[in-house]
Every structure is written in structure tokens, then in C-alpha cells.
Q: What sequence folds into this?
């Protein structure tokens, strides 16, 4: 998610950095919580479909209306963005997850399966982040290097050991987040429909808020200031 390169990369375009969203806030000199979660609108689009599903299901104990309502809410968010010609990437990614959840739960008839896709996604991310560290390509370092248009010389540069460690710590931090989600949500999922309310609550609490917290901690570890402090200084000038 930049790298301690032998040759410094060009600074990010201020216009781009100023509008950074999601993991792109890692390129900014200051951390913006609002930008990290995609703004208030992004927060609403992320939370509302799942919240609507849980509330309607708990009120009616009828799966179909809850699934339809969640799908409609997610679709409306995309349509509104398209009509307003605003970036719809976040809304599209959200609607994909909702559609998969709706189809999965519709097929099985089990309300908890609305959240099954999210559990699989967290499991895959947990495996991916852990493997990336073990093979020497910590995912946070790769992503930050790509965002800053820098090469991956930090992986082998002896002078970049401090930065490399920071990338490893940050990647384990993300692995910990995915593991924590699974540790809390998987047992609730296995309890079936009786725990759907608790599962939905856990999903919301460990969704955007936890993501934003981990992103902030990652910025503290590998943001521009932290990366600059971890870079090796220039070699001393030999005496004359």
C-alpha cells in the first residue's frame, strides 16, 4: 500500500492527493478520516444495505422483503451516482457484495448467508496478507509503492531495512483485522438465523470503523513522514 528507493520518486500531484479516497490517503501528508471512508456519502452507501437487511429481517422474520430492500438500496446508490456523473466505484463495489449476498441467501433460504460472502472475502484477504509477508512481498509495501509510482527496491536494499520492517508490521496489522473479523463473525454465522441480528451488528461495527482505524495506524507506520524517517540518509562526505 511507498518505498525507500535509491532514487526518490516524483511527489504525488497535490490535486490527486487532495482528493484521495480509501487506501490512497496513505500518500497524503495528513490523514483525513472523511476521505479514508469515502466521505459521508461513502459511509452511508457502505452501511445502509446491510443495516436495512438486518432491521427488516428482525422486524418481519421474512427473508424476501429484507433481501429485496437491501438490493434496492444498493442499486439506488449506484443509479444516483451515475445520474449525477460522480465516481461510482465505491458504490459499484458495494452493490456487487450485496448482490452476491442476496443471491446466496435466496438460494439457501438462510438469512445468515447474506453475510457469507463477506466471511469468504475476509478469509481470502487474511490468507493473502499473511502469504505476502512470508514470501517477502508484504502487501502494504507493494500497494504503497504502486500508489506512489515507486519501484520495489526496498525489498532488497540493505539500507531500507527499517522501512521494510514497517511494511511488514503494517501488513500484519491488516491480517490481524481480517482475523479479528472472522474470529467474531464466523461463530455468529454458525449459530444460524437466531444470531443474524448480532452478526449484522458485528459486521457493521467491524466494517468501516475498523477499516478506518487500521488505515490510520497504517498511515502512521508508512505514510510519507514515517517513510521519510525510515529512509537511509545520504552517505557522509569523506574528509578532504
A:
Amino acid at each position: 500500500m511507498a518505498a525507500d528507493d535509491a532514487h526518490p520518486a516524483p511527489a504525488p500531484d497535490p490535486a490527486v492527493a487532495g482528493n484521495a479516497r480509501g487506501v490512497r490517503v496513505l500518500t497524503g501528508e495528513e490523514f483525513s478520516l472523511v476521505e479514508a471512508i469515502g466521505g459521508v456519502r461513502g459511509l452511508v452507501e457502505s452501511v445502509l444495505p446491510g443495516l436495512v437487511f438486518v432491521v427488516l429481517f428482525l422486524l418481519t422474520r421474512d427473508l424476501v422483503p429484507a433481501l429485496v430492500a437491501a438490493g434496492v438500496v444498493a442499486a439506488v446508490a449506484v443509479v444516483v451516482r451515475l445520474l449525477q456523473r460522480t465516481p461510482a466505484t465505491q458504490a459499484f463495489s458495494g452493490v456487487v457484495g450485496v448482490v452476491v449476498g442476496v443471491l446466496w441467501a435466496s438460494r439457501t433460504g438462510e438469512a445468515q448467508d447474506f453475510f457469507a460472502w463477506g466471511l469468504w472475502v475476509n478469509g481470502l484477504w487474511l490468507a493473502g496478507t499473511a502469504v505476502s509477508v512470508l514470501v517477502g512481498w508484504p502487501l502494504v509495501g507493494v500497494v504503497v509503492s504502486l500508489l506512489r509510482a515507486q519501484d520495489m527496491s526496498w525489498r532488497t536494499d540493505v539500507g531500507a531495512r527499517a522501512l521494510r520492517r514497517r511494511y511488514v508490521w503494517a501488513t500484519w496489522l491488516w491480517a490481524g483485522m481480517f482475523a479479528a473479523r472472522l474470529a467474531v463473525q464466523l461463530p455468529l454465522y454458525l449459530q444460524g438465523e437466531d444470531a443474524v441480528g448480532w452478526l449484522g451488528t458485528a459486521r457493521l461495527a467491524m466494517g468501516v470503523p475498523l477499516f478506518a482505524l487500521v488505515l490510520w495506524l497504517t498511515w502512521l507506520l508508512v505514510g510519507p513522514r514515517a517513510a521519510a524517517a525510515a529512509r537511509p540518509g545520504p552517505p557522509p562526505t569523506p574528509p578532504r
Q: What stands out?
A: The chain is about 70% helix and 0% strand. The longest helix spans residues 161-190. Residues 155 and 213 are 26 Å apart (CA to CA). Residues 14-230 form one domain.
